[in-house]
Hints:
binds zinc ion, disordered N terminus
Amino acid sequence: xxxxxxxxxxxxxxxxxxxxxxxxxxxxxxxxxxxxxxxxxxxxxxxxxxxxxxxxxxxxxxxxxxxxxxxxxxxxxxxxxxxxxxxxxxxxxxxxxxxxxxxxxxxxxxxxxxxxxxxxxxxxxxxxxxxxxxxxxxxxxxxxxxxxxxxxxxxxxxxxxxxxxxxxxxxxxxxxxxxxxxxxxxxxxxxxxxxxxxxxxxxxxxxxxxxxxxxxxxxxxxxxxxxxxxxxxxxxxxxxxxxxxxxxxxxxxxxxxxxxxxxxxxxxxxxxxxxxxxxxxxxxxxxxxxxxxxxxxxxxxxxxxxxxxxxx
Length: 312
Ligand SMILES: [Zn+2]
């Protein structure tokens, strides 16, 4: 499902190459040259930023990584003997709900000692400030750690759900849950070291639904590998992307998921897309700006108050 969406948006990206949309002849050549290589000119970005009324900010794993949040993916990214893609699946949960809950319990507990970094804070401050000027900021994130919320972001679309929400496998009820531990049986469990044995918690002692008469087994309200994104959240995302007049891609690249699902449709409308990430950028991309480096360093000056802002 995700793959086919990705291929679809990639095809759209190719078929709607901006130079093919026939901008005025005098500007055509200049525009294509600009598009051939994204600009890293902060003063130019700030001009665009100052005029934007609806800013969509897509954030990825890089923003969380700068707060020291482990992803359990890639080289060295293990919890016990496993990586996230082996535990964050409906099959793993059906087979061994105790082990999967230990994994998520550990991830929730880790977050007690993690804090928003300057990128999270700059985004939240920008939203607060711009809202007083009748301008809007929305954050569309794949991160499940709630650091954007902790930083003060109000308008937040969590496309992969949250570590701090549960969903009942029986009645479907979704609940915010910040308890530590989430249930008594998980207290002191979830240690990540490879030699630690499974706690083998009886399923009736794992987190259970508290809705009247339900008592169903709860699962983390996160999108697992092989699952589709929530349709209501996607509808919200589409609505925001349709009205945004500036799009930032932060802590990921606009050509990899999740931004690759969204950025091409924004860019196809001629809306500027600005990337803030560590990765080098292929020169053929059709976004306007690229600011290399840690987003905790590059983003705060980009989103700071502009001299034309009268209300702060
Ligand atoms: Zn229930």
